[in-house]
Amino acid sequence: MLLSLFFANTIIPLSNEQLFIINKGLKFIPPCQSHFYYPQPMEEIIEQEYNRLYAENCKNLTNYTFLTNDTRAKEFFSEMKNLLQQLYTRPVPKKLDANARYIYKMIKSMQRKLRKANITVEQTDKSKLFFFIDTQEYEEKVKNYMNKTNAYQEITSGICPLANDLHL
Fold this sequence. Notes:
- This protein is mainly alpha-helical.
- The protein has helices spanning 16-23, 33-36, 42-63, 71-89, 94-116, 135-149, 162-165; strands at 4-8, 119-123, 129-134.
- It folds into 2 domains: 29-117, no CATH class; 119-167, no CATH class.
């Protein structure tokens, strides 16, 4: 399914290939993210993933009245940790690595170009339509909408006025 792209009074400095990546939509997941996107060491990523899976599985085991310190559960968790170690430390195939690096660099390039051109990218409400607009023009439209509807209040002091309304 292709998304629609809408350009509002702006010149988009992106190539057709970059627009095609945007057209894949918000659910597009670049390959091999853990190798490029996470600045922390792989051991920390493995430990975080293991802790998340461990907590979720412990919750499920106790829901079905299984003991988490049972020998089968301990064996399962040790196997799960070994599997995570294998999956995260196994080298990525060269072809996949090259493709992942190419897409990663392309996404970073798109971000730089849009920031340099002062373009805001938004998704319209309840649709899969991307909206490209000049940042100043977008800010003006937002302020006009806020003034017209009086549904919003701009916080300039940095203190949320809703805190006074909460009765704790």
